[in-house]
Amino acid sequence: METTHKNLRYLPFPVGKGNDTASIADTQKLLDKAIALAWHTVKTDRTEDSRPPAFTPAQWVWQLAGAYHLTHSYPPLIEKAAQGFERMGRKDLSQWATQKATEERGHDRLALLDIQSMGYKAEAVVEVLLPHTTKALVNYLTQRVQETDPIGCVGYSYTIERIATSIKEKHIQSLEYQLPVGIRATRCLRVHSGIGNDVEHVKEIVAMVTELAPQERIRVATACYETALLEFNLSKEDYILEEKLQYILRPLELCTHLQARDEIHSDYNHRTSEKSISTAF
Questions:
Q1: Chain center to CA of 281
Q2: How many Cα atoms within 13 Å fall on the side-chain side of residue 268?
C-alpha cells in the first residue's frame, strides 16, 4: 500500500517534542485529523453499493466473525512488532507493544462466546466467515509489523481503538433490542467501545506518540490514515446477502437452539414490526 498520500499534506503536523498538555492535544489533533481525512475521502467516493444491508441476527453474526478475526490476529502480530522494536533498541515502543499484546489477549474468546450465544458453533462459524474489510485490516497490520521499523502498528492500533470509542451505550442498547429476547451477544462490542478500556488505551497511545520524533509522528499519522481508509471504505464485497448468510449458518446451528429457532426468529420479526409501527407515529 502507498505510504504517502496527497491528502496528508493538510495535516497539522506538530514540530515540537514534549509531554506537556498542549503537545498532547496537538498530537491527538494530528491523529484524529488523519482519520477524519480518510472518512472524508471515502465518503466522497461512496456509492449505493456500499450501504449496509438491514440489521438481522444473522448479519450480527457476520459482524461478530469479523470482530473475532481482528481480535484473534492482533496479539501475535503486535508481539512480532515488539520484537522488531527490541531489535531497533526502542525499548519504549517494545514495552508498549508487549503490554498491548497482554491487554488484548483473550478478547477473541468474547466474540466466540457472542456467536455461541446467537445459537451457532462459534469455531465453525469463524472458519467460514471472513469479511473483506477484516481481511484487509489483518493483512495491513501484518505488513506493518514485518517492516524493519514496525511503527505503523501504532497508527493501526490508535485508529481501531479511536473509532471504537465512538460506540456509546445508547448504540449498544439499540443493537441489543434488535436481537432475540434473552440473547446476550455484545460482550466483545462492550469491551471495544466508548464504555470499555479503549478510551484509556487511546490516551496512552497519544501520550506515547507525543514523545516520538516528528518524523515518527508523521509515520504514525500516515498509518492512521491508511487504516481508516480500509475501515471506512466498505463496498458490496463487505456485505453478504441475507439468504446466502442463512444458507451458510443453518448447518452450523447448535443442536440446543434448533428447536427454539423459529420462536426466536418469530419474536425478532414481531419486535421489528412493532418498532416500525411506533416509528411511523
A1: 35
A2: 18
Alpha carbon distance 185, 113 (integer Å) = 7
Residue the block writes with cell 456485505 = 239
Q: Residues 214-217: contacts with CB within 8 Å, 24+ apart?
A: 214/13, 214/14, 214/15, 214/17, 216/151, 217/13, 217/14, 217/27, 217/30
Overall residue count recorded for the chain in this entry: 281
Those residues whose C-beta lies under 8 Å from the C-beta of residue 142, and which sit 6 or more positions away, are 73, 77
- Tens digit of pLDDT for each residue in 150-167? 999 999 999 999 999 999
Confidence (pTM): 0.85
Q: Which CATH number fits domain 20-280: 3.40.1190.20, 2.60.130.10, 1.20.910.10, 1.20.1250.20?
A: 1.20.910.10
Domain definitions of the chain by residue range: 20-280
Which string of DSSP letters, residue by residue, matches 214-230? HHHHHHHHHHHHHHHHH
Q: How far apart are CA 22 and CA 18, in angstroms?
A: 9
> What residue spans of 2-128 are helical by DSSP H?
21-45, 57-88, 91-104, 107-117, 122-128
> At what angle are helices 198-210 and 21-45 packed, to 10 degrees?
110
CB atoms within 10 A of CB 47: 8
pLDDT in tens, 53-79: 889 999 999 999 999 999 999 999 999
Local structure of 20: helix, strand or coil: coil
